[in-house]
Amino acid sequence: MRPSAFDYHKASTLDQALALLAEFGDDGRPLAGGQSLVPMMNLRLARPRHLVDINALPLDAIEIRGDALHIGALVRHERYFTDPLIAEHFPAFLEAVHWIGHPTIRRHGTMGGSVSHADPTAELPSVCVLHDALIVAASASGERRIPATEFFLNAYVTALEPGEMVTAVEFPLPSGPTSGAFMELGERVGDFAIAGIGVVLGHDGNTITSARIVCSGARLVPVRSADVEAFLVGRTLADPGAQEAGRIFSAAIDPVGDHAASAAYRKGLIKELTRRCIAHAAGKASA
Amino acid sequence: MKAENPRQIGARVQRFEDTRLLSGAARYIDDIRLPNTLHLSFVRAQVAHGRILEIDTFGLEDIGYPTWVFTGEDIGNLSMKAHQDYPEMQYSEQPLLARDVVRFVGEPVAAVLAEDPYRAEDAAELVFVDYDPLPVVGTMDQARDASIPPIFEGWKNSMFVERQMKGGDLEAARAQAAHVIRRTYRNQRQAGVPMECRGVVAHYTPGDRMLTVWSSTQMPHLVRTYIAEELDLPEARIRVIAPDVGGGFGIKGQVFGEEVLVAWLAIKTGRPVKWIEDRREHLVASLHARDHEHTLEAYVSDDGRLLGLWADISVDVGAYSTFPFTAAGDPGMAAKVMPGPYDFQAYEATFRGFATNKCPIGTYRGVARPSAVFSQERLMDDIAREIGMDPIAFRLRNVIREFPYKNVLGFTYDPGSYAESLEKIRDVLADDIAAAEASKSSATTRTGVGIACFVEQTAHGTPDFTRRRVPIETGYISARVEMQPDGTVVIGLGLQSHGQGLETTMAQVAADALGVLPETIFVRHGDTLTSPYSMGTWGSRGGPLGGGAVHMASMQIAEKLKVLAAHEMQADKDAITLYGGRAYVTDNPDRFVEIRTLARHALRNVENLPEGMIPGLEAEFSLDGPRDGTYANAVHAAVVEIDVPTGKMKLKRFVVVEDCGTILNPLVVDGQVRGGVVQGIGSALFEHFVYDAECQPLTTSFADYLMPQAPEIPDIEVHHIETPTPLTPLGAKGLGEGGAIGPAAAIANAVSNALDVEVSETPLKASAIWHLSAHLRGEA
Amino acid sequence: MTMTETTLTVNGQTRTLDVEPRRLLADVIRQEFDIAGVHIGCAHGACGCCTVHIDGTPRLSCLTFAVQCDGRDIKTVESLGGFDATHVLQLAFKSEHGLQCGYCTPGFLMTLVPYVEENVARGTLPSDEDIREAMSGNICRCTGYHGIVAAVRKAIGDQIGGGQ
User: Do A265 and B703 touch (CB under 8 A)?
Assistant: First the structure.
C-alpha cells in the first residue's frame, strides 16, 4: 500500500500550476491537503503520473466578492467553524462542517479537494448543491463557473476537464433572511453519511419564500428535490409541513442499498432527517 | 519492616515497559532492518475459487531492476497442515503459495522480491495470473447444498468436521419440559485487527548455520517448531524472535504460511527477506473470526428451571484449517462452552465447520465464546420473556451455586461468584432498569438494559488439548529465573508480551517470592534463544500459568537463598524470610544478610557455600493447566438509548462485574477488561467483514471495516469479586479474553429490552436497529 | 521518475536528501532518519498511528509525501520527553494505563499534546466528550480508550490545578 511512481511539481503561481496541469492532462492531478487523494494513491486506486502541489498558491481566502461568498480551494475545513461570514450567511453550511471527518483531517483537508473528490457521502458537495454554489474551475485556457448541480456527475466523477482544477467555490449570498440546517447520520463520529439532509429556508416574516433541500449519501451524487422545495414555499415557519416534506422527499428518492445500510433504511432516514432538519431550520428562524 | 517491601502481587504497579513504548524506543517488526534485505510483496488471488491456468511474469523482464519471483511450482510441497486426527475430520492443507487452485480472495499465489518495498509492490503488480473460475461455495447454505461441489477434491461434503457432544438424558428433559423454546442466533464474520499488521523478517547466516526469524507473533516457539519440521532443519539452529508486538488478540496466535515461506526464501536467496503485511492484506487474508450460526432448543420447567439444552452449531470456517487450533476449533469450542454458568444436566450438541471460499477463520479474543455466550444469553432473555420472568431472576434461579461443580459434559468448575455477580449487577443497575421500564411509554426514545452472565474456561492445559486432539498438543508455560551475582534477576519467560504488561506483572510475582524489588527484575520474552520452550501467549493463560511458573521457579531460588542465608547466619533455614532485598532471621530486624551478598556468594565466591551446594541461582519451572482449566466468571451489562425514528443508538453505560481470582495488578486487569469490552462492543455494533455473492471482499479498508473510536465508547465501569482458585499457584484465573466475551450478548439484550423485540444477530448497526424498531413506528 | 532534493529537519536533525517523490514522509522519517517512533497502522489515513508534527501541527505522515516537507520542521514522539518519556502526557499515559501494546501510542501522543497545551493555556478542563472527539481520528485496539481519556484529563488537570 504505497503509491505508484509520479513526478512532483511544486507550483508557486496559479499560472504555473495551470500550465503544468495543461501539459499533463489526464496524467496530472493537483495536490492540496492530500486527505482524499493520497489514500486513493496508497491503495493504488489513483495513479497520477504527475502531482502539482498547489499548497503555496494564494487560494485560501474566505471573503465576499460581489454577491457571493468566495471560498478559495485551499481553505482548510477547520476554518469554517470560526468564520463569521459563514456563520452569518450560511447556517446550514456551518452545521454541516461539524460532520466532516476528524480533527486532523479537518486541519488539512481543503474545499477544493473535497469538491474535486466528489465522494457521494461527503458533506461539502452536498453543501455546494444545497446553496446553488458555483464551482470555479480554472485551466490554462481560462476560467469557468460550473453550477454545483452540474458539477457532480457520478460518484467520484466531476465535470472537471483534464487540465482543469478547482480554484474556488462561490456561494451566492442570500437575498433576504434565511435559516438553514444540516443533519446526517453515520455509523460513527466522522464517518461518511448513511444519509444526510441539508435545508435552506428563505423567509419574509413568518412566510417561507424560498426553499432548497439536499440529500447526501442516498445516491451517487447529492440530490435536490424540486417537489419538496415547491411544497415548502408559501408555508409558514410555524407550520412548515416538515413531516409531509419528509414523506415527499423520501418517496422521490430511490436510495442505494448496500452492506452499510438497506435502501429501506436510507428512505426512512431521509424522511425523518428531512422532518427534523426543516423543523430545526424553521424553529431557528422563528426564534 | 513489611512497609519496606509491600506485597507486590495485587499492587497497582505502573508498567515498566511503558517508558520504552511511550518514548519511541520500542522496536516492532518493521523496525528490524538488515543490510542487503530483499522485500517481499505477494501476488494474491483475485478470484475466490479458480484453477490457475497461467502465471505470467513477462512484465518483470524489462522492469529495470532485479526481481525474484517464486510460485507454487517453485516451493515443492511446502504447506500449512492443521489436522485433527479423528474420523469425522476431512483433511486439507494450504500450500504456502497456491498450487493449481486458489480457494479465497487474498490467498498467496506468487512471492515477488525486490531490493525496495515500493519496487516490490510495483513488480508484484506486473505478475498476471489467469484463472479458470470454479463454482464458489459462498455461504453455509451453499456448503450444505449437495449439488455444489466441495472446495477440496475427494471430500464427501463441504464440512471440515461434524461431531457431537452430549451428556445426560435429553429425552427426559424434553419430556418434563413445560416450555420448549427454540431460537436461531447469528454472529457476523470479523477481522481481528491489531493496530500493527503482521510481518516477518528472516536471515540465514551460513557461518553458524543459523536461521533467525523475526515475526510479529504470539507464539515464537511454535513458529520455530513448524519451520523446523516443514523445512527439515535442526530446531537448535533456528532462532525465532518476536520483537515488540503491536497487539495480537489471538490473530497472531497462529503459525502462518508467510512465516515459513519467508524463512525458506531467506535460505533460498541467501539474503535477508522481509515481509510487512499491509492493512488491506491483513483485512482480506490474515485471519478472520466468528461467523457462527447456532440453533438452540431449551427445555424449561414450569417454575423456570432449565432442564436441558439442544444445540446445533455451524461455523463458516473459510477455505483452510489453521495451525494449531484447526477448523474444528471454533465450532468445537462453541459446543463445549454452551452449557455456561447454568445448572442443568442434559445436553446434546452437534457442531460443524463448513469449508467456503473465504479467508480462514481462527482464534480471535474469546474464540468461540463471544458467539456461544451471545446465543446462550440471548436465549436466557428470550426464555425469560416467554415465560414471564425477570431476566436476572431467571438467571439467579438457574445459575450454579455449589462448587466444585461437575457440568453436563463432565468439566469441573472451580469456585466462582456467579450468583454474587448477578446480584451485584442488579444493585448497580437499579436506576437504569427503572428508567428502561419508564421509557416503554415512549414511541421515539427507548432505553434498555441488558446483561450477559458467563463463565470462561481459562488456563487450558495439555489434558484439554489431548482430549480434543489439537495439533498444539501441549499447553504448559515455562519460566526460567536467574539471579545474577549482583542480586538482580533475569526471567526468561515462555510467554510473549504484546500489551499485557507481563514485563511488570511477572516481575511482581518473582519479587514477592524472592524478597526483592520488581524494578530489579528484567523479564525477557519472545525470543526462543533466551526463553525456555513454551506455547506462547494466548488463551488467557499468562496470569494463571505464566505467573504460576514464575512463582514456582522463583520459590526454588528463594529456597536456595534461605539455605545459604541460614548457613551464613548460623540460623535455622525455616526461620529465614526474604524481603526488602535482605534475608532476615525472623523476629530479629538486626540479623540479616543482603540478598545481593548471598547472590555473590552463590555465583562468585563459591568457596564458602554449604557442603554439597552447587553454585548458581537459577531455576526453571513448566506449569501446565489444570485438567479442566480454571473458570473465571463475569456479568456484563449494557445500557442503551435508541432514537426509534432514526435507529441511532447510544451506548450510555457499560458495567462489568468480573472474578478472575487473585488479581496480580489491578491496573493491568482493568486495562485488559476494558480493552476486551471495547473489542466486544465492536463485534456488537460495527465490525463486519462482508463478502459479495462471488466471495469478493467488500470491506477492505478502514473506511468500510469499522472499529470503535473513542466517541462511541462510554467509560467502562469495572467491579471485582476475587474468588481465588485452588488450581493455580497464585489463585489467579485467566482474564485476557473475558472482556470481549460478554458485550455482544449484553448489548443485544439491551436492545431487546429497549425495543421489546427479539434480537437474533449482530452487528447491530443503525440500519439493523431501525429495522428492529419498525413496530414502534407503526410500520410492522 | 525524478528524484527531488528535499531538506528535512526531524527532531532537530537536518538532512538534505534526494527523495523519490512518492516516498511517504512516514517511510522517509523511519528509513532515512532511523526514527522508529512513527508507526504505520493503515497507510490510508484512517487510524492516526503515524501522526507527526509538521511545523507544530499534527499531520498524518502516511498522507504526506516527504518532498512536500522541504524546509519544514518535523517532530516525532521521540522529541517529547526523550527516552525516559518525561513529558507530562507521557507520564499520565503511564499512570492511567493509557497504553498496552504501544503501537498506536505515538500517534495518540502527537495528536493530543497540542490539545493538552491548548486547554492548559485556556485554563479549562474539557468534558470527556470533548476529549473523545479530539482523539476521534486515532484508533486504539487495546485500551478501549478509557485510560487515554483519563490520561488527557490528568495531564490537563494537573497543570491547571484543581485537576480531576
Answer: no
